[in-house]
User: Fold this.
Amino acid sequence: MPRKVTEEKQAEAQQLLEAPPATHLPAVAPDSLPKAPALTPEVNKQTPAVGQRVTRPDIRTHITGTTRYIDDLSFPGMLHVKILRSAHAHARILSINVDALHKMPGVVATLTGEEVPVNSFGSTYQDQPVLAVDRVRHRGDGIVAVAAETEQQALEALDAVKVDYEPLPAVFDPLEAMDPDAPKIHRIDNVYASKVIMRGDVDRGFEESDQIFERRYTTPMIEHVPLEPFAAIALWEPDGQLHVYSTNGRITLGRADLARTLSLPMNRIRLTATIIGGNFGGKNEIRTEPIVALLAKKSGRPVKAVYTRQEEFIASTTRHPLVMDYKTGIANDGRLLARSVKLVLDGGAYASWSETTVGKAAILAAGPYRIPNVRVEGRAVYTNKTVTGAMRGFGAPQVAFAYESQMDEIAYSLGIDPLEIRLLNGFEEGSISPTGQVLQAVALKETLLMAAKRSRWREGDL
Amino acid sequence: MVRSFEYVVPGSLDEALETMKEHAPHLKPLAGGTDLLVELKNNLNGPQVVMDLSGLPELRGVEETSAGLRIGAMVTHTEIEKDPLIAEHVPAMMAAAATIGGVQTRNMGTIGGNLVTAVPSLDSGPVLLALDAQVTVAAAGGKRQLPLTEFFVGPRQTALAPDELLVDILIPTVMLGRRASFRKFGLRKGQALALVNAAASVAVEGGRIAEARIALGAVSPTVIRAMSAERVVTGKQINDADALREAAEVAVTEAQPIDDFRASAAYRRELIAVGTFRVLEEALAQTTAA
Amino acid sequence: MHQVEATVNGATRRAEVSPETTLLSTLRDSWGLTGSKLGCDVGDCGACTVLVDGLSVNSCLLLAVQVNGREVVTIEGLGGFEYLHRLQTAFERLSSFQCGFCAPGMIISAKALLDENPAPTEPEIREALAGNLCRCTGYTKVIDAITEICRDRAVAVEAPA
Assistant:
């Protein structure tokens, strides 16, 4: 079929030809461009914000493909890194042989965990090795890193690494991991973080209740899947300063962690956060920064490491899967009298942000409801799975799924409108949360009523 | 990241077949690349030689021949969606092609490439089975033709010998214009793998179903024909909804759906029944509309 | 090594590549066109979408040697900082992207759609973008931007000359 060529299309083609070639873009935005609005509001003047259409200051580079994400940066002589990852979920490493690796084409430098000055990191507990030395605790553990002239050579060089393992029993279910007889994943107990919150007398609350509802809720592991994989570039300045470019979203913490692993004072390290192609909480810790820094030192050249998509899934963090046992006592009129919650967080192989997550999940586990008697017990547990860490909400979405599911079940069982049971029990101005916080500016009921109205929840609603 | 290999572009089918004879089984033909490149990236022991089929005119084009409609193995899904001969004779193929991947995948991926993957969920399989499609495969020693039912041997396994190449697909003349329909059930609409695929073709004579073909995908080790279900509806009145319902139930017994992370076997059985009923209903509706 | 010569954004480009080099690597590493992104590396996310002979394809699933003698258009071929393609203007007006990583591929897919179908319906727009994932989940404003262009065009066509 012949293609219909319209005048408009011809004009567009002409415009395309007349457009300046992309390689000759001006380095600095010309004056003809609209300037980003001033960020400082005028004193005593209400700045219109809500409901206004704004143009993002970074949108033009996004739509022209000129935003420089980390993988768009390169430096003269830059080497590329690939990392050999564990072949087992849980194993003792008997030996690592990298002799043949040095003979592979393009290989310039290699790194094992023994060469890392302080081979551990972690945002709460420093229980995670930069590269595993004597033991692997999940399939995402890196063992050997290689820097080569090209990414292809680095990838193919990994075939030359020989690692001998002695497989160990692995545990994948957090409830099984809590068993005293379960394989121990670290030297300490598999339960490594906990949070208990108590308000009132939950046992008496249940005794005084007319009805009791009990149920277990579970949520799965979720990967952030940023479109841009995790990456880092390291180069050493002639004066001994280390400059690292990274997709890390928490550069101050990242810089401190990096300084610790390298045994360098923080002021010798400059960490530049590049423009990020999606984070969602998954880029809040260091990953390959110490590796590229050390390989750059060994080779004397800039070094870049970009995660493959598979590494993004197995060697980054994910959202904690939760097992949530809920028990709620109610009066026949629908008032909540007591709620006990037991949370088990599957922490994966290393602690990461689990302590923060178990805390936030426990604090929010009873829901935004006036309950006089509450007891919440949260535990984070090691398993031989991908590490779980920060992800949007830190445990809040998981417990919200559980307590709102239970509220619905109670409402249906009592024959009460699910909206009514929430209005009956919801936080009000001055309500006290399970942690004893007196709440101010509470708009829960107004919000519920407006949502009900706008979604035409009830007959006659507009 | 793809492992290294040697790349060859033969200029004729004969040259391609000689190359295959020389390098099999260490050679992989490259059609659209939407599966092969992924495989090359994941596979540590990839092929030594990759043979690009883009220079072979014998594998291209859609044409009417005395035997039926011949579709070259290198015809892309997008080309199938837009081909006037396919629109005229086998529009159900367009419906199936339109459900494959995203636009980019359909622009690159080919019908031949889709068939040789022989994955149970391949989207172009059921309609072709419901239309009694034949395939031509060639080796340096000569060509042979076999029914598509014999082409699929198991999950990701075909009847192709290591040095054989899929050349084209033939829809027999008797099947051209046969009323057919296709349904795909996925977890979402765009770019989804099928949980269940279903296709049907029907021939109607004097208000009765003279011949029916029902094919199902993603429910067994290969794409299958539900022949017992076909027998249930054969000879029935075209408005006999009970017969369709019975066929749907029988079709469920002919499949061996599995539990996996996409869906449970129980849910797949439900979809087989719904899918079988709907494709029969839709194919029959076309006979009365025409 | 293989020689590749292709017309890229209207200009002839040459590169010497090993067979396994993808078009995406060649665009980014040999020709400095880093607008196309590596996201999933298996043809699911569409961040690497470019046009080859006018059709949208995933450049991570195409070998560089396969585009020898063909015509490639990348995001850099649509418009630059001072000159925007009308699609880019619409995406800018609505600030359709958040992190922006999907933007180049999304815009190329939108261009491929409008080249073929100047007045798509919303379901057609959604279908055309099915192969482009946005993890920030900003699809609404992407679809709004394309819809807006089509509406503007419809108005322009109806207006008396």
